[in-house]
Amino acid sequence: MKLQDFGYNDNIEKLKIEHNLEGFEIGRIISEHKERYTVTTEKGEFDAEITGNLRYTANTREDFPAVGDWVALVVYDSYSSIIHKVLPRNSIISRKAVGQFGDLQIIATNIDYAFIMLAVDRDFSTNRIERYLTICNTSNIQPFIILTKIDLINEVLLNELIATLKKRVNKVPIIAISNTSKQGYEKLKEVIVREKTYCLLGSSGVGKSTLVNTLANKELMDTKNVSSFSKRGQHSTTHRELILLDNGGILIDNPGIREVGITDTSHGLEKTFEIIFEYSKHCKFKDCSHTIEIGCAVIEAVEVEEIDKSSYKNYLKMEKEKEHFEATAAEKRKKEKDFGKMVKHFKKIKRSSKY
Ligand SMILES: Nc1nc2c(ncn2[C@@H]2O[C@H](COP(=O)(O)OP(=O)(O)OP(=O)(O)O)[C@@H](O)[C@H]2O)c(=O)[nH]1
Ligand SMILES: [Mg+2]
Ligand SMILES: [Zn+2]
């Protein structure tokens, strides 16, 4: 297998040279199970672990390898290999780690496109789409909205759903499919191109793995019967996996995501809620929070329905989450720094007490 098939390109070649990694085998992480990785290389697939040094110097979860990463490794035998370095990533999809303050969880890296998948028959939520869009826009990953299970509703209802969605999300392509009848598959296949990586995002049960299996024409991923999704916490897919399709597209299947928590989004919110940011330029106060201020152009636009009210509310909620994440992350960094200082201090005392 050539590395190009997995998305290797001149940019990664440049990074390899810049980081003096010519002596290493280069590969891409295709799956992860609790810090044990599978890496694909020109010599085949290998199980891999990370070096003690990489573990020791890792400050946050972000420093650990993730599915989609390009890594430099030393291969020992047909089974084992050690990852020495993670090459710089060109994009990262991450969310707030569940239950941990100020931490983020990487979903996948080096992604070109994201498929934001929602089933039309249940839990359909534009608020959630805007969340996914924000995490994609943060890392400049081009999103597609994929509506699944359209075999379960009639065309009139589907068109209504799309029209409502378009009122809030108008610049993102929407593709409606059924994994059962294959409706919409031709359109979907057109956007999956060779050597590009697509990350599948969505709640449990929307049909991510079924899509992967159907496109690959193989039962690569486990899928689960709809009835078993009524129990909360049951996911069919329990790990991330990168799959190469016959047509050359690279898909990353993920476990269903329940909470799409927002982190520090840089311009992610700005791009997702472009219209709000456009109006905000005309607010009376530069630091307007768009909540209570007199002379707030955003509030005025909401009142005359130039800005969708639900979209505005969703924006405010996510903006708050972003600020909260930034504050807790800063606090966490400070604590870690103080802890580091304390360790240094004690080491110094220990050293000086020797004499
Ligand atoms: N009617 C219908 N059922 C579908 C469609 N796509 C998937 N399903 C069914 O939905 C159920 C869940 O599909 P999965 O592919 O396992 O869903 P998933 O998104 O991978 O779920 P997790 O791995 O838990 O995140 C399975 O029983 C599928 O057969 C579709 O287009 N139409
Ligand atoms: Mg799955
Ligand atoms: Zn304002």
From TrEMBL:
The keyword GTP-binding applies. It is found in: Cytoplasm. One of its GO terms (molecular function) is GTP binding. InterPro entries: G_CP_dom, NA-bd_OB-fold, P-loop_NTPase, Ribosome_biogen_GTPase_RsgA, RsgA_GTPase_dom. Keywords: Cytoplasm, GTP-binding, Hydrolase, Metal-binding, Nucleotide-binding, Ribosome biogenesis, RNA-binding, rRNA-binding, Zinc. Binds 1 zinc ion per subunit. Its EC number is 3.6.1.-. Its cofactor is Zn(2+). Belongs to the TRAFAC class YlqF/YawG GTPase family. RsgA subfamily. HAMAP family: GTPase_RsgA. One of several proteins that assist in the late maturation steps of the functional core of the 30S ribosomal subunit. Helps release RbfA from mature subunits. May play a role in the assembly of ribosomal proteins into the subunit. Circularly permuted GTPase that catalyzes slow GTP hydrolysis, GTPase activity is stimulated by the 30S ribosomal subunit. This is Small ribosomal subunit biogenesis GTPase RsgA. The lineage of its organism: Bacteria, Pseudomonadati, Bacteroidota, Flavobacteriia, Flavobacteriales. The gene is rsgA.
